[in-house]
What does this fold into?
Amino acid sequence: MSTPRSHLEVLPRSLQVLLAAALVVLVAFPFIGTDFYAQTIARMMILAIFAMSLDLLQGVTGLVSLGHAAFFGLAGYALAFLTPAGEPVSLWWTLPAAVAAAGLAALVIGFFVVRTHGIYFIMVTMAFAQMVFYLFFDNKVLGGSDGLYVNFKPAAVLFDLEDKRVFYYFTLAVMLLVYAFLRRLLWSPFGRALSGIRVNEHRMRAMGFTTFRYKLAAFTLAGALAGLAGYLWGAQTGFVNPELMGFQMSAHAIMMVILGGMGNFAGAIIGAFAFEYLLLWFKDLPAVGAVDLGKHWQLWMGLFIVILVTFAPRGLLGVIERLSRRKEARDE
Amino acid sequence: MNEVLLSAQRLTKRFGGLAAVNEVSVDLWLGHIHAVIGPNGAGKSTLTNLLSGDLAPTAGNILLGERDVTGWSPERISRAGLGRSYQKTNIFLPFTVWENVRLAAQSRAPHAARWLARADRFAATSERASRAIELAGLADRKNRIAGTISHGEQRQLEIAMSLATAPQVLLLDEPLAGMGTAEAERMVQLLLRIKPDHAIMLVEHDMDAVFALADHLTVMVNGQVIASGTPAQVRADANVQSAYLGEGVQ
It folds into this structure.
């Protein structure tokens, strides 16, 4: 319908096949990989949900938020507050409650920030997120700088999330649901209007769209979905601290979306996996003489992303698409 | 006399000390084209922006139908039945021609904010978009990316997008700008086709087109109206001849 090339909104068959193959690997992984790696992948899937939620703003609507982690962290804290010290709490009401809390926070913050444009939007989202960060960082009641423990994983009655394998599949299912939901939303009247706002908000208003409401709805939904990821993060790690809503976390999400390729949600997933994988890989770099290469992983990550963005602005998904098109051209 | 669909009364817009538009009154009638002409900097585009809500007037009133829409936002004025096109092509370049117009049509639909249904499955919206594309003569360009069609076609697309919002009042800011003779002729035909159902304000420099199309003519110089009337009256006006039209139209 629109932007077939630049945003890969329509995923070419080659990419669909690749994603399906990746899904098979994800489904099989707990049986073929070690426990440690299964947990790492579960974490990647949680971050993929987070990155997809940001992509709704960044890639689809064209709103670059530097404060998206606030909503991720808030939902994690919500779980920590709702979980009593001595027993698990039911997933069935705490998950919706945490997501609603993140969504509500996004609605309130969004009411102010979506009125701003461009660089101001970036600054104001960052300012709000820093406010939330310091609210938790400076208040002992809210856990302070040390954070809070989540002593028990939420209980789900039907399945036991304490079982790592069950948790893994639960996370996978949530990630797939979020992906399916967002892909559908992308082609809905609402999603088309968001794309229109990214490309030319001025004309959207002249055509009668109250773009403020659309942007606020997108911001709220993105915040709620970030909360979904944050809840899972809190459940998996059993621990939340202010870093979760910090500036770095927000910046990492932006990098994930750019790394994978913006505006189609598949790129956000690939970006989250790639970012986490590279992070582990760079951290494992050996010491050369007196210099510990691994300790400076942020330097290598920064370099890698600069190079990628310079030569492949559509991210990894764009690279894969180009390679597969070249191969098709050769095969014919 | 036809029905007045838009009436601007003594509109003024000041930027600092400069009155870009100074006490300008304009009426737009259903089935009429009201051309606004004048040299560069006369305030024609500012007038258009005042009427569409892109700028708020310093003084004066705008009546759209029965309603006083002075100070309304562009989206609200658009929903009240006013469509506009832009002097500088203002479309969704990466989208297809179809999606440009469909999106415009969607703005009038109650489903505009639906989340889970496919956008192209709404018959009423698609029909309105198809009609607008047909009317603008772009049916064979439907699936092209808007950024890749010719300049003239992009101007037609501008009009199609305005039409898809089903306006009663249309403000067209230099629709013929930068067009070749054949393209301009096509645009004139298009404007004649849509004229009976709309009240149109046409800002245009192409005098051949203006005299071919306009039922009413307003001449602006330095933010002020120096003459207003039928083309014949304006042509005969001594002020206009010295200030603007010059020898060329005699």
Chain A has one domain: 13-331. Chain A touches chain B at residues 1-3, 6-7, 184-185, 187-193, 195-196, 199-200, 202-211, 213-214, 217 (CB under 8 Å).
